[in-house]
Amino acid sequence: MEQDFYTSRLENQGIEVVVPDPDDRKVVHDVIYNELCLGVIKKQSQQKYAQIVDKLISSGVEGIILGCTEICMLIGDIKFSVPVFDTTAIHAKAAVDFSLS
């Protein structure tokens, strides 16, 4: 989230980018590298992620980007009131579409 891989491209399209606050970014980072990258999925971490997403939604965001390949394993089937963009699935679909064209 500190990198501009997504943010600069979205901002160039006129989309305002909102990232979690520093404490929430630390939670996201710790869960990714200390759990998800090791294949560990904890209910407590799912709840923390859901709280972070809910906080972002409450602040007015209109969509959530899952910008790390492992986050979709944690979010799973949790439903939110805004669209959730799983970049792993988006990239995979684009690769398939490209290969089949």
Automatic annotation (TrEMBL):
Keyword Magnesium set for record: no
SUPFAM superfamilies: Aspartate/glutamate racemase
Pfam families assigned to the protein according to its UniProt record, in alphabetical order: Asp_Glu_race
InterPro entries per the UniProt record, alphabetical: Asp/Glu/hydantoin_racemase (IPR015942), Asp/Glu_race (IPR001920)
Entry keyword set: Isomerase
MF term (GO), any: amino-acid racemase activity
Full protein name: Putative racemase
Organism for this UniProt entry: Acinetobacter stercoris
